[in-house]
# Entry
Amino acid sequence: MTRGAVAGGAATGRTIRYAIAGLLLACAVALVAGEQIGRSVESSIARWLLHTVSGMEVLGMHASTVPAVVFRSGNLRWNVLEITLECAIALTLAGLLVIGAALVCTSRCSPGRVLLAMAAGTSLLVLVNQVRIVMLALVLAHGGVGPFEWAHSFAGSVVSLAGLAGTLFVVFTLVIRPGAVPGRDTRTRSRQEAHA
# Structure
């Protein structure tokens, strides 16, 4: 193989990496720009989950002018749990995608592994946020506003932070190549093993 062919292959590889990074960044921007749609989707999933888990009566999207979960608690009182931008997952997912874009630009990270990690990380973050929303709805339904305030500010934050930490652990575990030694090029190691 000639040096020109190697250089051409490297340039193509960089182009692919930058295209994937651009796609991840475009998705991050779309999440932030379309956060209202994202919150509507999140509230729809949360309504379904809440009804499935608790059996409570839950109203559809038409019941509120903002993305929210509207449900009737055991005392027959209607509750509205609004999904605000701070409660939604859009900004956190956008941040994860920006990290993915940075990782895919480095030659040490396989683009396929980064995309797999982004898919897994996105799924985990959405799942954790849905668990948090349903947990808060259940606390509001069964405990009232006082316990809800505590659960929202403390327990919800703990769930979110634990979910984020777990997600980052999974993402970086998936991105890092098995057997890779920090500071040592695995391609050099493979060539050395082939000559041994």
